[in-house]
C-alpha cells in the first residue's frame, strides 16, 4: 500500500454558495470508466480527492484518456491523494484513516468484465466494500464531536436494472422479471449490485443519519461521450429491452451528477435515502467536454 499526499485546503472557485467551500471526497473505483470522470471533474473543480486504487499508474493513464496530460499537470493532480490497495482486502483501520476528514465518499466499483471479474472472488466486491466504507464512516464520525460535523455523504453507483429495494419502482413486465431473476442467479456483478442496493436501503439502522446520509444512483444505459444536462427520475422509465432509444446517459454525465449531489445540498436533500435514475436530457447541452 502506498500513498502520496499534497494537502491543499482552502476555497475553490465554484460560484454558488453551497459549492464555495473546497471539499474532500474519497473516490473508490477511480480507475473505472465512470470513476475516472469523477476523479478528474472533481480535480478540475479544485476539490481535494482521495482515491483508493489498485494501481496509481492505471489511474493516471485513465485520467490522460479523458484529458491528455492531466496526470502530469500539478494544478490538477496536486490535489489528488492516492492509496494503492484493493479496498476489499484493506485493513479496516487503514480505511478509517482515509475516510477521516472526507465530506463524501463516491463508490464507482464494479466487477471487471473478464473471466476473473465475472466468476472468481471477490463475488461481493461492491457490497462488502460499501459495508466496510459505511462502518469506517460510522467509527470516524462517532469519534467526531456530536453536532460539529455534518453527516458524510455516501453515493453508490448502481444501475437501473437493479430494483429499488424499498419497493418504489413500477412492476416490470413478466419477461423482464424472468430475465432479471435469471441475471440475479447467474451473473455475479448483477447479484452484487442488488445486494449493495439492499444493504444501503437499510443502512440507517446500522449507521445513524447524524453520521452518514446516502443515495444509490442508478444510471440508465451507459455510453461514452461528454457530460450533458440530465434528468432525474425516482424510478426506471423504460423497459429492460428498450436499449438506448428509451434513454441513455454518458459516464461523464453520471460523474457530473454524482458531483452535483456532493456539492449541492438542495439537490442532496431531495434525493438522499433514495435510488434516483439518471438519463441525459434529450438534446441536452454539453456541460463538460
Ligand atoms: N446502468 C448501466 O447500464 C451500467 C452499466 C455498466 C455498469 N454499471 C454499474 O456501475 C458501476 C461502475 O461501472 P463502470 O463501467 O464505470 O466500472 P468499470 O469501468 O468496470 O470499473 C470498475 C472499477 O472497479 C475496480 N475493481 C474491479 N475489481 C476490483 C477488485 N477485485 N478490487 C478492487 N477494485 C476492483 C476497478 O479497478 P481496476 O482498474 O483495478 O480493475 C475499477 O476501478 C458498476 O457497479 C456497474 O455494475 C451500470
TrEMBL record:
* Pfam (any one): NAD_binding_10
| Residue span(s) of domain NAD(P)-binding | 29-262
Sorted alphabetically, which SUPFAM superfamilies does this protein's record hold? NAD(P)-binding Rossmann-fold domains
- Domain of life, source organism: Eukaryota
Task: Supply the PANTHER family for this chain.
Answer: FLAVIN REDUCTASE-RELATED, OS06G0360300 PROTEIN
Q: What is this protein called?
A: NAD(P)-binding domain-containing protein
Amino acid at each position: 500500500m502506498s500513498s502520496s499526499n499534497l494537502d491543499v485546503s482552502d476555497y475553490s472557485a465554484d460560484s454558488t454558495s453551497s459549492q464555495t467551500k473546497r471539499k474532500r471526497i474519497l473516490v473508490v473505483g477511480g480507475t473505472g470508466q465512470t470513476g475516472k470522470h469523477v476523479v478528474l471533474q472533481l480535480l478540475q473543480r479544485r476539490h481535494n480527492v482521495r482515491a483508493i486504487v489498485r494501481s496509481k499508474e492505471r489511474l493516471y493513464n485513465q485520467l490522460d484518456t479523458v484529458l491528455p496530460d492531466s496526470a502530469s499537470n500539478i494544478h490538477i493532480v496536486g490535489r489528488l491523494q492516492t492509496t494503492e490497495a484493493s479496498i476489499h482486502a484493506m485493513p479496516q483501520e487503514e480505511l478509517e484513516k482515509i475516510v477521516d476528514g472526507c465530506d463524501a465518499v463516491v463508490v464507482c466499483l464494479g466487477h471487471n468484465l473478464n473471466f476473473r471479474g465475472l466468476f472468481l472472488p471477490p463475488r461481493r466486491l461492491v457490497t462488502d466494500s460499501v459495508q466496510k466504507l459505511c462502518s469506517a464512516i460510522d467509527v470516524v464520525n462517532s469519534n467526531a464531536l456530536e453536532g460539529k460535523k455534518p453527516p458524510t455523504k455516501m453515493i453508490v453507483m448502481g444501475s437501473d436494472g437493479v430494483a429499488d429495494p424499498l419497493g418504489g419502482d413500477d412492476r416490470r413486465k413478466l419477461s423482464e422479471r424472468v430475465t432479471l431473476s435469471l441475471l440475479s442467479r447467474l451473473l455475479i456483478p448483477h447479484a452484487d449490485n442488488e445486494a449493495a442496493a439492499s444493504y444501503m436501503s437499510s443502512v440507517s439502522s446500522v449507521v445513524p443519519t447524524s453520521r452518514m446520509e446516502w443515495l444509490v444512483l442508478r444510471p440508465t444505459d451507459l455510453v461514452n461521450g461528454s457530460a450533458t444536462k440530465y434528468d432525474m427520475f425516482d424510478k426506471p422509465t423504460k423497459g429492460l429491452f428498450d436499449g438506448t432509444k428509451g434513454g441513455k446517459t454518458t459516464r461523464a454525465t453520471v460523474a457530473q451528477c454524482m458531483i452535483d449531489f456532493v456539492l449541492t445540498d438542495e439537490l442532496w436533500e431531495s434525493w438522499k435515502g433514495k435510488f434516483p435514475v439518471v438519463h441525459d436530457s434529450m438534446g441536452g447541452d454539453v456541460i463538460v467536454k
